[in-house]
Design goal:
The protein has 405 residues and is an alpha+beta fold. It folds into 2 domains: 2-231 and 328-404, no CATH class; 234-325, Elongation Factor Tu (Ef-tu), domain 3 (Beta Barrel), CATH 2.40.30. It has helices at residues 2-12, 17-21, 36-51, 69-79, 129-150, 172-183, 261-268, 278-283, 328-343, 355-363, 367-376; strands at residues 27-31, 56-64, 85-90, 93-95, 98-100, 104-110, 114-122, 158-165, 187-192, 204-206, 209-211, 214-222, 226-232, 234-247, 252-256, 259-260, 286-290, 293-296, 299-302, 308-310, 319-325, 346-354, 379-384, 387-389, 392-394, 397-404. Strands 14, 15, 16, 17, 18, 19, 20 and 21 form an 8-stranded antiparallel sheet that branches. A 6-stranded mixed sheet has the order 1-6-2-3-10-11, covered by helices on one side. Helix 1 (2-12) packs across helix 11 (367-376). The chain is globular and about 65 Å long.
């Protein structure tokens, strides 16, 4: 009922107008201007209008790969020099329109209700888990000391760790497990950077500058209720496949059931003559069962030699099922009702939605219904090349952080 009521209120307010008029702690701004300087100018003007005299503890920024990165960075440093910015390039954006493209979205956290602190890791091929855990633990300890000194003893606070990692690094599993172990009971949530569907050049944004081959952990502390979630819209089907030859380091599968990988996957999906593209991978996601739970292991590309490259860790001996869709719209209604029960009235939701979810929703004529529910529940974020939830790197999920009022 909570999700339905929010949807009706948003539709009555004619979509994006509800956001401009909302009096909330978190501020969300977007621009569709093609020119980076013009886009950042629009963001700065919206921020000023919504913040008034308030200052930001920091902000998240997700941008389309269509923006020239150097020009966007220059504009951000010029117009928003005092705002710590964290985020990444995207495979699509989540804005006041719901699913969106060719845009930039900024989500600001005002000082007072929120504080933010961060640490970045570079050169991920040489990532050292021990030193990374020490850096994260130091970050947590420093933030805790500052919070104790600044906040009244009777004021409750909540924490999450926002995590952004290079979506082409092939290092997400190791980094996610390492970070969550160092964070202890602070839950990690995040997404892998994208570049449309080009798979060539992604970047992480840290303190206003873009970095390739990097990851950043942002510790967000708030007096407001915080709730992390992860939702899949697929269940295992009857078709099974065993990985019989794979290059685990490159995430490439050469054989399935002792047959050429692409050919066998297409056959098991029931479409032996279909073109293997992103839409096909989205509609027939491989699913693995581990620890009593099912997780999608999405395919990124079909290669000329008949092999398949995956978005996530894969190895010889892994048993997979071909996934089948559940009712996505009903599942979202249930999810937002659960979120409302957890945090009360929703201020905003920071959403990390796999790009394959979006493609499949579009192919099934559900993108409009999904977008309306994102608008109704103030979801802002981006389409990812993968999602991180606690200690796991996920595929084809809608994962995020809900912030209560």
């Amino acid at each position: 009922m909570a999700a339905k009521g929010a949807l009706e209120r948003a539709e009555a307010a004619d979509g994006c107008g509800a956001f401009a008029q909302a009096q909330s702690g978190v501020v969300a701004c977007t621009s569709h201007a093609d020119n980076p300087a013009a886009a950042v100018a629009e963001l700065a003007e919206q921020l000023e209008a919504q913040l008034g005299e308030r200052q930001l503890a920091g902000a998240l920024l997700f941008c389309s790969n269509t923006y020239p990165r150097d020009a966007l960075e220059t504009a951000l440093l010029h117009r928003l020099p005092d705002v710590p910015l964290f985020g990444c390039t995207s495979a699509g954006e989540l804005t006041e329109r719901g699913y969106d493209t060719r845009s930039v979205v900024l989500i600001g956290f005002p000082q007072g209700p929120f504080s933010m602190a961060s640490v970045r890791f570079d050169d991920l091929d040489r990532f050292d888990p021990a030193s990374a855990q020490a850096a994260i633990r130091q970050l947590v300890a420093q933030e805790r000391r500052g919070r104790v000194a600044a906040a009244p003893a009777d004021r409750a606070s909540h924490q999450v760790a926002l995590f952004f990692v290079d979506g082409l690094s092939h290092r997400e599993e190791l980094l996610t497990m390492t970070a969550q172990h160092a964070l202890g009971d602070i839950q990690l949530i995040g997404g892998s950077s994208g570049d449309g569907l080009s798979f060539r050049d992604t970047a992480i944004l840290h303190e206003g500058r873009f970095h390739a081959d990097a990851a950043v952990v942002v510790l967000l502390t708030s007096e407001r209720p915080l709730h992390v979630f992860c939702k899949s819209f697929y269940r295992p089907g009857p078709a099974k496949m065993v990985i019989t030859e794979a290059d685990a380091q490159a995430r490439i599968v050469h054989e399935i059931n002792a047959a050429p990988a692409a050919e066998e996957y297409r056959r098991l999906a029931g479409s032996p003559l279909a073109t293997l593209d992103a839409q096909f991978f989205a509609a027939y996601p491989p699913i693995v069962r581990t620890g009593g739970q099912c997780h999608v292991r999405s395919i990124q590309t079909a290669n000329d030699d008949g092999s398949l490259t995956f978005y996530c860790a894969i190895d010889t001996g892994v048993v997979l099922s071909i996934g089948e869709p559940v009712d996505r719209v009903a599942a979202l209604d249930d999810l937002f009702a659960e979120i409302g029960a957890s945090v009360g009235e929703i201020d905003h939701v920071i959403g990390f939605d796999c790009v394959l979810n979006r493609l499949d929703a579009e192919d099934r004529q559900q993108a409009g219904a999904v977008s309306r529910r994102y608008v109704a529940n103030r979801v802002f974020g981006f389409n990812t090349y993968g999602e991180q939830f606690r200690a796991a790197h996920m595929n084809q999920t809608f994962t995020g952080l809900a912030i209560g009022r």
